[in-house]
From TrEMBL:
Gene3D superfamilies the record matches: dinb family like domain
Listed name of the protein: Mini-circle protein
InterPro entries (UniProt xref): DinB/YfiT-like, MST-like
Organism taxonomic ancestry: Bacteria, Bacillati, Actinomycetota, Actinomycetes, Pseudonocardiales
Pfam families referenced in this protein's UniProt entry, alphabetically: MST
Origin superkingdom: Bacteria
């Protein structure tokens, strides 16, 4: 029987920001769990015509965390370039480095979230001419991360049969 990685969703219900952050954290954890225990070759393996791999998803999400929380929310410089938002990882970059980079991006994002005054805090850098709220940003990043966690779940099942969120 294949390994099942199922865990319950967060049970936090103490306030809007706490709930939103808990669900984003849960989705981030799901992505990292899909990468855990796989070889470099498995992490890089593209099993769909688009070329998507688990490592490519992790790479993309690290760049997205920095772009949205570090740049737009906190007002920091835009790091990297828009190619970093692609789901392609340089073949000579070690998988462990990509995963550690995602963890570091999450930590930096969490610091930016903690520094905000609440869900109504507006981004420092507008998107499309509008300074969206942290509420919007958390919803956006949770859906983005959940979508890619689902992709990673399917890829992981194809690799070794492990299933579950």
């Amino acid at each position: 029987m294949p390994d099942e990685q199922r865990e319950p969703v967060p049970r936090v219900d103490t306030g809007e920001l706490a709930v939103a952050h808990a669900f984003l954290s849960f989705q981030r954890h799901c992505v990292l769990k899909k990468a855990a225990g796989l070889s470099d070759e498995q992490l890089r393996k593209a099993l769909v015509p688009s070329g998507t791999s688990i490592l490519g998803l992790v790479h993309h999400l690290a760049a997205a965390e920095r772009f949205w929380f570090g740049h737009h929310l906190a007002g920091g410089p835009e790091q990297g370039n828009h190619d970093d938002l692609d789901e392609v990882t340089a073949p000579d970059r070690p998988a462990a480095e990509v995963i550690d980079d995602y963890r570091a991006a999450i930590e930096a994002s969490d610091r930016a979230i903690s520094a905000a005054d609440g869900p109504e805090t507006l981004m420092a850098i507008p998107i499309d001419g509008t300074r969206k709220s942290l509420r919007w940003l958390l919803a956006h990043m949770t859906t983005e991360t959940a979508r890619h966690a689902g992709h990673a779940d399917i890829l992981r099942e194809q690799l070794d049969g492990a299933t579950g969120r």
